[in-house]
Amino acid sequence: MAEAQKADKPLHELLSHSMVDLYVGPDSLTYHLHEKLLCHYSPFFARTFYSKTSQTKSYGLPEDELPPFNLLVGWLYSRAIPLPADESAIGTLLDLYLLSEKLEMEKLSTEVVEAVRRFYWDGNTYPGLRRVQYIYANTEEDNAMREMMVASVARYLVLAEQGIPKHWDKALRKNGQLAVDIIRSIQEWHLEGRSVPDVRDISQTPVKGRGFAAMTGRGLDDASGVGENDSGVGEGVDDSFATSREEE
What we know:
Helix content is 45%, strand content 6%. By secondary structure, the chain is mainly alpha-helical. The protein has a three-stranded mixed β-sheet with strand order 2-1-3.
């Protein structure tokens, strides 16, 4: 984010008489919003509407879609984000996240990441490949949503009993940065050396058909922090869900 966010204020203190018009989408749907409220949460709009060189009270966002912008407006006036009912709703939340990053709305960005994280935790599922690829295609390094998704996928792949799924194997071979980020995420677990299989140890016997990757006697399961919410690893991970923007 370009600028630090201001401390929260009660909604009534931000409902100024001054209003601004935002024209959203290719059809320029008009949103009539309170200027002070919008600028309080968005340094981007604060620079736009409070500039000494411009007296404009309108701004166009022709490339943005209505569903995520509707969620943004709802958040402005309620400070609440509706939790997705199912995985198909995650696409709109990801679009909301990208929009909040574009408009430098740090508080909103943080809350969207939390909503997505909570969805996967409550459902005991993990982000699908298309979701991760979509975020990678539209964010830079050190991005909160990207880091949360990579950390989740790292855990999923390590604990997957049947090895790396074919679609993930193919993706990791093509996207070296994603593979590196997953390794870095695993390093952040700070596993003790005795919890990680050591192929140099001649007392350990490789499992037939799995080679050194499946040394007996020691395994990541003992130190990966598996909790009571981790049954059915990989269940519900469905990469068939994708918004039209993701497929483009």
